[in-house]
Amino acid sequence: MIIMIKTMMNRGKSSYHNQQVISFEDIREATNSFSEENKLGEGGYGPVYKGKLSNGQEIAVKRLSHSSKQGMEEFKNEVTFATKLQHVNLIKLLGFCTEREEKMLIYEYMPNKSLDFYIFDPQRRLMLNWEKWVEIIEGIIQGLLYLQEYSRLTILHRDLKASNILLDANIKPKISDFGIAKSFESNEIEASTDRIVGTYGCVPPEYIKQGLYSRKYDVYSFGVLLLQIISGKKNYSVYGPHQNLNLLEYVSFLLLSFFFYILQNKYNLLDLLVNRLLPLVISLTNGKRLRVNFVFLNTLLMDFITSIDI
Ligand SMILES: Nc1ncnc2c1ncn2[C@@H]1O[C@H](COP(=O)(O)OP(=O)(O)OP(=O)(O)O)[C@@H](O)[C@H]1O
Ligand SMILES: [Mg+2]
């Protein structure tokens, strides 16, 4: 892989499969010299800038910062997976730049930002109606089904979270950030690692405790994301009567409270929530053995969506 990237670097402005090598000068021009006004945000890899190439195409440039703990490994991963994976619900990597010790990744620009922009803000949540939320959830599942079931490789994304789901001009979701993704042999059930990476709150317990990862890893992260979409709450904030529960614990607490109410015959509705939605979410975030896979999940979710008419 290193050899492949080096060869790509040495070619100057050329292309490798669908990857364009873009010069530092072109990117500098496109981003108004990496100006503050062009800055879209900043993550663990480094700052992200909006830009416009001379052919008029809008781009987002991720520039590895010197202080970043991520680096060559993540850069190579992004380029490798982008070359192999093509799906309408995955972000498209247009090219990269490695001139002057830089490691820049150039993506198609997503004008409607990432899901976290909408989920956690009570006003912005209302900008998307129920149908749009359903379409977004369906789109994310289609992307994940492709990664796990329908592409030639079995890919674990391993960093599925709201800020990594970008929305295009038509609010179509695109899964982004394959920096710590892993490909899996299709007959491999489970593997283990000593190097724990990912985002706190989105990583399944078996990975934190034993370093085990399997197809069920992304299912767990998707369950957390679904909870966040429904509740508008972040996983790592504290909730509950004593403010000491994370989102999953809080949902379990709510579920128990609902059952308590029902047993006491105080509440008789909430059939939808208690009998359908919560079991679905809990089945996603459950211990690995009971956690459903994406094919089954797709059926469950579609069944749930068609059973309610909001
Ligand atoms: N292709 C893109 N188009 C538009 N905005 C983007 C694009 N890629 C990233 N962004 C924005 O840039 C910001 C930083 O993204 P980045 O992926 O670097 O970090 P993050 O996902 O917030 O955190 P982490 O480093 O933990 O993944 C986010 O707000 C995201 O919405
Ligand atoms: Mg990201």
Bound molecules: adenosine-5'-triphosphate, magnesium ion
Report the average pLDDT across residues.
77
CATH topology name of the largest domain: Transferase(Phosphotransferase), domain 1
Number of strands: 13
Question: How many individual domains?
Answer: 2
Sum up the overall morphology in one term: globular
Order of helices and strands: HEEHEEEHEEHHHEEEEEHEHHHH
Can you name the CATH architecture of the largest domain?
Answer: Orthogonal Bundle
Strand content bin: 15-25%
Order of strands across the biggest sheet?
A: 1-2-6-7-5-4-3
Give the name of the CATH superfamily of the largest domain. Answer: Transferase(Phosphotransferase) domain 1
Radius of gyration: 21 Å
CATH class category name of the largest domain: Mainly Alpha
- Largest sheet, if any? 7 strands, mixed
Low-pLDDT stretches: 1-15, 263-269
Classify the oligomer. Answer: single chain
Explain the layout of strands and helices.
Blueprint: H1 2-10, E1 15-16, E2 19-21, H2 24-30, E3 39-42, E4 47-52, E5 58-63, H3 72-84, E6 93-97, E7 104-108, H4 116-119, H5 122-125, H6 130-150, E8 154-156, E9 165-167, E10 173-175, E11 182-184, E12 191-192, H7 205-210, E13 212-213, H8 216-231, H9 247-263, H10 271-285, H11 294-307
Parallel strand pairs: 2-6
Antiparallel strand pairs: 1-2, 3-4, 4-5, 5-7, 6-7, 8-11, 9-10, 12-13
Helix pairs in contact: 6-11, 8-10, 9-10, 10-11
